[in-house]
Amino acid sequence: MKHETMAFKAGVLHLLDQRKLPEIVEYFQARTYKDVAFAIGEMVVRGAPAIGAAAAYGVYLAAVEFNDLPKQEFQSKLQEANRLLAASRPTAVNLNWAIQRMERLVAAQKTENVDTVVAALLKEAERIAREDVETNKAMARHGEALVPHGATILTHCNTGALATVGWGTALGVIRQAHYAGKRIRVYADETRPRLQGANLTAFELVEEGIPATLIADSVAAILLRDGKIDLVLVGADRIAANGDTANKIGTYMLSEIAARFAVPFYIVAPVSTIDFAIPDGSYIEIEERSPQELTHIRGVRVAPEGIKVYNPAFDVTPHANITGIITERGVLRPPFDRSIAALL
Ligand code: MRU
Q: What is the pLDDT of residues 129-150, one digit of tens each?
């Protein structure tokens, strides 16, 4: 990617402002943990792995802010900040995963002074960011092996470099297959209501020169029915212990149609997206976002005042519709309760 999704420089987290793409390439500067929480909530930065890494830097920024406090006060203020960061978006488990990793480090440094803890937190946030790119590349290698030469791939939402620290999950597999010379073609769902497919996935695909066609979400059904799609690759925000997978709204519908026409349907996600603590998808909290995302397009009202709006940002794809889950540790196959438990 020509543009980095995030970069931490001189105490500031620079986030490529994804609300403005593709027209404007501009960085949002998060100087405090509250700025980071705002950026996640407002979707300046989005995508499960990206918000996890951003939150880790948020924890560090909070630690810097409370650096001068006595140890106990430092710890309680930091916990308060972490709660605010964790609440900025509820569905993607990577957010909690990253914050908990930072918290474990604080707990492990119990006997150290605050300065040492703060320095260690920066290193941990940097490690989380670095590992994310390595993890994505490992997933891409496992996933690429499943992509036939000349395949046409359907994808939903944005799962690329923009949704991660770099490279991407489902779009990372697509990238890898393209660079492996597989002559693939991509159909990208526009992904209503926020248009991550049109604004972000199309941006990445065009930038990389990967042959791609943008479609309205409702076009996917006829492509799947007519045998135009060889496989579907999507990302995930939270995967339950039985393989049920929360991802961008519309993924469930795609999975039903893919199952109906026996088109392979793969989830591409790091192990950090698996919530081992929940038995199935019914335990996943689904974020509901502002009605404005439907009543307005770029600030222009497109629905009458007074209309009721239902705007869940995610849905849950039942494990029965999933052919495989591509992780950095290999491809998980059904029965997922067993293949997921084996990761532990
Ligand atoms: O609401 P968003 O844009 O954060 O939703 C993103 C998705 O649903 C992605 O598919 C998911 O986070 C995986 S990204 C690698």
A: 999 999 999 999 999 999 999 9
Q: Among 6, 44, 157, 175, say which to mutate for ligand 1: greatest number of ligand atoms within 8 Å of CB.
A: 157
- pLDDT of 1 over the 80 cut: no
Which residue has the CA at smallest separation from atom 8 of ligand 1? 248
Backbone phi and psi for residue 119, each to the nearest 5 degrees, phi listed first:
-65, -40
> Is residue 76 over pLDDT 80?
yes
Q: How big is the CA angle at 310 (ends 306 and 312), to the nearest 5 degrees? A: 150
Cβ contact 164:198 at 8 Å: no
Q: Is 48 in the pocket of ligand 1 (CB under 6 A)?
A: yes
Q: Is 280 part of the annotated catalytic residue set?
A: no
Dihedral angle computed from the Cα positions of residues 266, 268, 271 and 277, in that order, rounded to the nearest 10 degrees: -50
163 C-alpha to center of ligand 1: Å? 6
How close is the Cα of 65 to the center of ligand 1, in Å?
30
Contact 219, 185 (CB under 8 A): no
pLDDT, position 2: 84
What's the rounded Cα separation, in Å, for the pair 256 and 241?
A: 20
